[in-house]
Write a structure and sequence with these properties.
Layout: H1 3-27, H2 34-55, H3 62-76, H4 78-84, H5 91-114, H6 125-142, H7 148-161, H8 171-175, H9 179-205, H10 217-231, H11 233-250, E1 254-257, E2 260-263, H12 270-284, H13 290-295, H14 306-311
Antiparallel strand pairs: 1-2
Length: 312
């Protein structure tokens, strides 16, 4: 592909990412991950606009191109920061912190454009390292979930797009602005986003098993898995830690691992199961609404195990 075709291809892939992340925002509606999806749409739209302008012959000045790319990169790491603060009730206010981070990250671009026109942004080594850390944290948050392939593709694409401002990148690669390389990076982003959306859609529309389970584990595992795939490992492990602390204090014969609930003891004892369901529902409600829980198979009964009692 020639340069113009490559840039057009990259722009198309970025637009696909924007559309797919918008669909992803709808799929996770009712959870505190929605703001992260909004940030992702903004980042993909910014990248698409940049590549479209370059394909049309604009941003020929390397300094201007570097400044615009820094804006896109600042938006691209905002979803990671948004997820790190995705707990109610502070998740709304947290978005102002995320926005402040974005502004701080683009300050070198603003300074170069307004104060030193014609010079590229002077990105401090601390900011370069911080961008790298955020990209790696985003990958680590989902590498243990079923979105591992998508997370790896998206991380690789972001790393290529951010190569000029990341630390420890060879000068020859950092200065390379080959449109074909940009197109390949955008293609990785698009494939990763589509795969993640398809996996989420399949999980959301998977029918519930008929009949009643012998214990509360199957009732918990589906919404718990959905929450894990939505928020990633960081908050999932925190939920498991909090639940296991309560379970130990109250002597419940169950433990919550990264992959689901492990139940021991007498499964006919409904008293501890009711309490466990209430405790876990309270933890889930810090991140999702009641409607979200119902959509992912949580029992209608607030006590959690009334269906089990009726089926015994």
């Amino acid at each position: 592909m020639d340069d113009s075709t490559s840039l057009c291809f990259g722009c198309g892939c970025a637009l696909i990412v924007a559309v797919v992340t918008a669909v992803g925002g709808w799929l996770v509606r009712g959870s505190t991950a929605v703001p992260a999806a909004v940030w992702a749409v903004a980042a993909a739209g910014s990248l698409a606009a940049e590549l479209a302008v370059r394909a049309a012959g604009g941003l020929a000045d390397p300094a201007a191109g570097a400044a615009v790319r820094l804006i896109s990169l600042a938006l691209a790491v905002c979803p990671v920061m948004s997820l790190l603060g995705a707990k109610r009730p502070q998740h709304g206010v947290w978005q102002f912190i995320v926005a402040s981070l974005g502004v701080v990250l683009v300050l070198p671009a603003l300074s170069a454009t307004l104060v030193r026109p014609g010079t590229p942004p002077d990105v401090h080594m601390l900011e370069r390292g911080f961008l790298l850390v955020l990209i790696i944290v985003g990958w680590m948050n989902f590498i243990g979930t079923r979105h591992a392939v998508s997370a790896t593709l998206i991380t690789a694409g972001l790393a290529v797009l951010a190569r000029a401002v990341l630390p420890l990148v060879p000068t020859r690669l950092a200065e390379a602005r080959a449109p074909q390389l940009e197109a390949a990076a955008c293609g990785a982003l698009a494939i990763g986003a589509v795969v993640a959306a398809v996996q989420s859609a399949r999980a959301a529309w998977r029918p519930l098993r008929p009949g009643l389970p012998p214990s509360i584990a199957p009732l918990i595992d589906r919404p718990y898995a959905a929450l894990r795939e939505t928020l990633g490992a960081a908050w999932t492990l925190r939920i498991a830690e909090r639940f296991n602390t309560v379970a130990t204090e109250r002597g419940w014969p169950c433990r919550l691992s990264f992959h689901g609930l492990e139940v021991g003891g007498d499964s006919d004892d409904l008293d501890w199961q009711r309490d466990a369901m209430r405790a876990l529902r309270a933890l889930f409600r810090r991140f999702v609404t009641t409607e979200w829980l119902a959509r992912h198979g949580w029992p209608d009964d607030a006590g959690g195990v009334a269906p089990l009692m009726e089926g015994r």
